[in-house]
């Protein structure tokens, strides 16, 4: 009789067995998910460490410790940027030194004039969706390392005007005429300043932001969509 649990303990034992079974199933799913590396760096070239213009000369920015992770993520000349020119950032962006100058030029020479033509007012801030992030492209497990892993990319989700009006990529891309015109113009004219420009037309992964990067391609090609 000592080996038989009391009747009062049977519901408890059933619950314990069910919980253990569920934990085992979840562990199995987790282990299959984590087999192999999260991303590959094959064929990728980190950005140059040197830059012509220090971010602190064109905005509110400070040098931070360079990033070098064992899995390939690295920012050889890392900066924490809070604003560039006349445009504030919704959150600090961690970028490599070379990203600051083309981003500053695009904001001042493209975004601001386009905002004036489209809305009759300037942009005072942008919503930063992502800057440095050690992850695969489009968060797809096993893919190539994103340029975010080099601090070589920035994602912009919205532009705020002087009046407080916010133009979001997610809503404005298919929104009013002035919003659509503004967003498509700043997207298209980012090509050249940046080596990769992606927006909602490039697929679901970029439905709510503009992705700008300086991918260091060996052939120097540019990809914009």
Any overview of this molecule?
There is one protein chain. This protein is α+β, with helices and mostly antiparallel strands. It folds into 2 domains: 1-35; 39-224, no CATH class. It is 28% helix and 26% strand. The chain has 4 helices and 13 strands. It has helices at residues 10-33, 97-119, 169-172, 177-188, and strands at residues 39-40, 59-63, 67-68, 74-75, 78-84, 87-96, 123-130, 143-144, 153-161, 166-168, 196-198, 210-213, 223-224. Strands 2, 5, 6, 7, 9, 10, 11, 12 and 13 form a 9-stranded mixed beta sheet that branches. It has a two-stranded parallel ribbon with strand order 1-8. The protein has a two-stranded antiparallel sheet with strand order 3-4. A hairpin with a 4-residue loop joins β9 and β10. α2 (97-119) runs antiparallel to α4. The longest helix has 24 residues, at 10-33. It is globular and about 50 Å long. The N and C termini lie far apart (74 Å). Mean pLDDT is 87; it is low at 1-35.
Short description:
The protein has 225 residues and is α+β, with helices and mostly antiparallel strands. Helices cover 28% and strands 26% of the residues.
Radius of gyration: 23 Å
Can you summarize the main beta sheet?
A: 9 strands, mixed
The tally of domains stands at 2
State the end-to-end CA separation.
74 Å
* Unreliable stretches covering 5 or more consecutive residues: 1-35
Q: What is the structural class?
A: alpha+beta
Count of discrete alpha- or pi-helical segments spanning 4 or more residues: 4
| DSSP E strands, number | 13
Helix content: 25-40%
State the order of secondary-structure elements, H for helix, E for strand: HEEEEEEHEEEEHHEEE
The geometry reads as globular
On the 0 to 100 scale, the average pLDDT is 87
Strand content: 25-35%
């Amino acid at each position: 009789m000592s080996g038989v649990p009391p009747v009062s303990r049977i519901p408890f034992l059933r619950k314990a067995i069910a919980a253990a079974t569920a934990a085992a199933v979840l562990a199995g799913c987790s282990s299959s998910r984590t087999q192999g590396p999260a991303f590959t760096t094959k064929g990728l070239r980190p950005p140059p460490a040197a830059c012509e213009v220090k971010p602190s000369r064109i905005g509110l920015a400070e040098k931070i410790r360079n990033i070098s992770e064992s899995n390939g993520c690295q920012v050889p000349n890392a900066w924490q940027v809070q604003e560039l020119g006349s445009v504030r950032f919704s959150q600090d962006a961690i970028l490599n030194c070379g990203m600051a100058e083309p981003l500053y030029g695009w904001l001042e020479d493209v975004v601001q004039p386009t905002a004036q033509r489209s809305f009759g007012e300037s942009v005072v801030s942008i919503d930063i969706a992502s800057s440095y992030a050690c992850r695969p492209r489009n968060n797809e497990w096993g893919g190539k390392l994103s340029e975010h892993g080099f601090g070589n990319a920035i994602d912009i989700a919205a532009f705020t005007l002087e009046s407080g009006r916010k133009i979001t990529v997610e809503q404005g891309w298919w929104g009013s005429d002035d919003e659509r015109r503004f967003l498509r113009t700043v997207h298209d004219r980012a090509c050249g300043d940046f080596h990769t420009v992606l927006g909602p037309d490039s697929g679901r992964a970029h439905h709510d932001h503009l992705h700008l990067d300086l991918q260091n391609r060996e052939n120097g090609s540019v990809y914009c969509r």
